[in-house]
Design brief:
One of its GO terms (biological process) is carboxylic acid metabolic process. The chain is α+β, with helices and mostly antiparallel strands. 46% of the residues lie in helices and 11% in strands.
Length: 771
């Protein structure tokens, strides 16, 4: 059986698809005939189908990881499921003895490893299912007539289940749904607000809640404590909570990732107190890197009848066989292997914690004890007037609006940092989460990921190096945000969009002439302008990244500016955006009006040419229109008629006669097209300098051998440009209607008047300047 399973897993993990030459027949597609069509399939074909369904189309997801490398201990765990199905075919007596032996051995080993003496075990697939069974056991223990009277007993004295405010989301709702209790039976206990950790249960406030519930005629039933909260891994004061539960007869249940440290030689006092609780839930699968291993709830109770009614024990062999994968895995790993894996995960968290203490602008959220295997950190920027030793807590004199903007900005940057680190170091298993007080943070929990992903100490060093490489980008971006906002607000035509979820420098929107500021609907004209603006900005080949998307809380298009990795000239950036958007708007408006102007010009030219033809007929007379008579009359008395046509000036939008062109053999000067709008100031860049970079003059970035020559070249260019501007300013101004000299006109200006509507067939041609 093990050999067949190994061969099947090897086939499923193989990344090479069999070709037609290898198997000698048509390659298998994604679908094979089902059991209702044709004959049955062999095992190889069925496994090939499973492989296709598991991996899907590799062309669509080229970066998706294939089946994880579970190793030999994973194969042992998977063998347990197949072996359990095989064992279930034995006769009842052998099956009963074997399942009882497996269940008792696994329970004993787990109680010895995690220091929970004289306990019983319940194995379950859903992690929260064990707690629901414990709640049923507590109800049956405290309500003696519950089996007979049922809901009437609960109605006369309502039970209360106490949960910490730092408990995992959805736990209370799950318990109420499984037990059939109303939501008022849940009581959420707040965490400490003044003393101690902000993620630990407030014991004094819990005692007050218990006394109030007793006075109201309620029954305090069960308390769920945390040995490692779901968010930051903090441990409640389980010793004091146990004393409080014994005083009021409350069942104490403990869960959390820190319970894994009970297998180590040194355990903190707060976690060690969990061994005295009434029940606890363990998740050895993620801790040891074992796939398809059930969770375990250890509990202490002397009445087997109540445990049977609650569902914690069962007489069915199939329920007892749930422990078989864990029974095989524990024997394969041994005590040394179990302790080594848990100890390795704790060492990884301690290594990361010690390394992050030496990194500036990184705040670590840890409790007082150093034994927690969870590290939660976040990027922060010291505010003006704050003490660096207090982790950048703003002073009371700071404006609340400024503190709120700083909080939202840091949250967006931490979210970006977490996503970047997950891509750079995928074996780290980082997660990004939002905390109520601290904001967005990054969590590192090697106990839940290191054994599965195979993380080592070198990966922790790589993670720290990646964090240090991203810090300059984060600090520079955060410093430029306020300057960018001020520049945008001071620039006409631009609107600053406050998007708290964008981690870049900022978001800006160009307000065109027809923009309805009060409307939040999609603006097609604005979307067209922003699409052209995005294309122009990406063509500049700067270090900044630009993207277009809908505005925050509306459907209008905006330009999102990404992270800044170096000192950026924000004023030049904003000015370039404004000028480029204005050019795109004017060009689009000119092109939109061009069709209408040309159509009207053609109609007017046709009318004028028709009138000119009628006038020519009146001047020549009727006889000249007769074919033979007209030719003889024109030979004796030719008509001296000038060629009259029309030329259409696209720049001026007017019709002009071509008589001047045929008489003087030269085209009219027309109207000089307006100059393309440019920025108010043009920045001269050094050779190789990218757009939006601040000038390197006076900085240490220029070497001693090349800085002088580069600065002299830059000064010469500025002097030449300044001299040309001065000469243009001193030249006499021309009258708007005066003709310009021939050599001063643009190349397209001389052709502007002559190309157009001539004779009976009007012709229109765009000037070169508009092309």
């Amino acid at each position: 059986m093990g050999k067949n399973l190994k061969e099947a897993m090897k086939m499923l993990e193989d990344s090479q698809r069999r070709t037609e030459e290898e198997n000698g027949k048509k390659p298998l597609s994604g679908d094979i005939p089902g059991p209702l069509q044709g004959s049955g399939q062999d095992m190889v074909s069925i496994l090939q189908l499973v492989q296709n369904l598991m991996h899907g189309d590799e062309d669509e997801e080229p970066q998706s990881t294939r089946i994880q490398n579970i190793g030999e201990q994973g194969h042992i765990s998977l063998l347990g499921h197949s072996l359990g199905a095989y064992i279930s075919t034995l006769d009842k007596e052998k099956l009963r003895k074997l399942t009882t032996r497996i269940l008792s051995d696994t329970t004993l080993w787990l109680c010895r490893i995690f220091r929970y003496e004289n306990g019983c075990a319940y194995f379950h697939e859903e992690e929260r299912e064990g707690l629901a069974k414990i709640c049923r056991l507590a109800i049956h223990s405290r309500y003696e007539d519950f089996v007979v009277d049922g809901f009437n007993v609960l109605y006369n004295r309502k039970p209360v289940i106490y949960l910490s405010a730092a408990a995992r989301p959805g736990l209370g709702q799950y318990l109420c749904n499984q037990l059939g209790l109303p939501f008022p039976c849940l009581c959420r206990v707040p965490c400490n607000t003044v003393f101690g950790s902000q993620h630990q249960m407030d014991v004094a406030f819990l005692e007050k809640l218990i006394k109030d519930d007793i006075e109201r005629g309620k029954l305090p039933l069960l308390l769920v404590a945390n040995a490692g909260t779901a968010a930051v891994g903090h441990t409640d004061k389980i010793g004091r909570l146990k004393e409080l539960c014994e005083q009021y007869g409350i069942w104490l249940h403990v869960e959390g990732v820190n319970l894994a440290t009970l297998a180590l030689g040194y355990v903190s006092s707060s976690v060690l107190a969990a061994t005295k609780c009434d029940s606890m839930t363990l998740t050895p699968g993620p801790w040891l890197g074992l796939p398809a291993v059930p969770a375990v709830t250890l509990y202490k109770h002397d009445d087997p009848a109540l445990t049977l009614v609650s569902g914690l024990t069962s007489n069915k062999p199939a329920d007892k066989l749930r422990a078989l994968p864990l029974w095989l895995s524990l024997q394969y790993l041994g005590l040394d292997g179990i302790v080594e894996r848990i100890k390795h995960a704790c060492q990884l968290s301690q290594r990361l914690q010690e390394s992050l203490k030496k990194v500036n602008h990184i705040k670590i959220l840890v409790e007082d004890e150093l034994s927690s295997p969870v590290v939660v950190f976040r990027f922060f920027q010291e505010l003006p007037g704050s003490d660096p030793g207090l982790n950048a807590i703003p002073v009371p004199s700071a404006a609340p609006s400024a503190v709120g903007r700083e909080r939202h900005s840091c949250d967006a940057l931490n979210r970006w940092l977490g996503e970047q680190l997950k891509q750079l170091v995928p074996v780290s298993g980082l997660t990004v989460m939002d905390l109520e007080v601290e904001g967005t943070c990054v969590r590192f929990s090697p106990l839940m990921t290191a054994a599965v992903l195979g993380m080592r100490g070198e990966d922790v060093d790589q993670l720290v190096a990646c964090i240090q490489s991203k810090l300059p980008v984060l600090t520079c971006t955060l410093q430029l945000r306020e300057e960018f906002k001020q520049e945008v607000e001071a620039t006409a035509g631009l609107l600053y969009v406050d998007d708290p979820n964008w981690p870049g420098i900022g978001v800006v929107r160009y307000e065109h002439a027809n923009d309805d500021k009060s409307s939040l609907k999609l603006d097609p004209e604005g979307e067209k302008i922003h699409a052209g603006l995005l294309k122009k900005l990406n063509e500049l080949e700067s270090d900044l990244t630009f993207k277009m998307g809908p505005e925050y809380k509306s459907m209008k298009s905006c330009i999102y500016i990404g992270m800044a990795s170096d000192d950026i000239d924000v004023s030049e950036l904003v000015e370039t955006i404004a000028v480029t958007a204005r050019e795109i708007e004017e060009n689009s408006r000119l092109l939109e009006n061009m069709t209408e102007v040309v159509r009207k010009g053609i109609q007017e030219a046709q009318v004028q040419l028709q009138k000119a033809n009628e006038e020519r007929l009146l001047e020549e007379g009727v006889l000249r229109q007769i074919p033979v008579v007209g030719s003889v009359l024109n030979w004796f008395s030719p008509v001296q008629a000038s060629q009259k046509g029309r030329t259409f000036n696209l720049t001026a939008g007017s019709l002009e006669s071509t008589e001047h062109t045929y008489v003087y053999k030269v085209q009219g000067s027309g109207v000089t097209p307006p100059q393309t709008p440019t920025g108010t100031r043009v920045k001269q860049r050094l050779p190789g300098q990218k757009p939006f970079k601040r000038s390197l003059r006076g900085s240490d970035a220029i070497s001693e051998t090349s800085s002088v020559s580069h600065i002299e070249d830059l000064e010469k260019v500025e002097q030449l440009s300044g001299g040309q501007e001065a000469s243009e300013a001193n030249s006499p101004e021309r009258h708007p209607g005066a003709p310009a000299p021939l050599e001063a006109e643009p190349p397209g200006a001389l052709q502007d008047g002559a190309q157009g509507l001539q004779h009976d067939r009007p012709q229109v041609e765009e000037p070169e300047s508009l092309r």
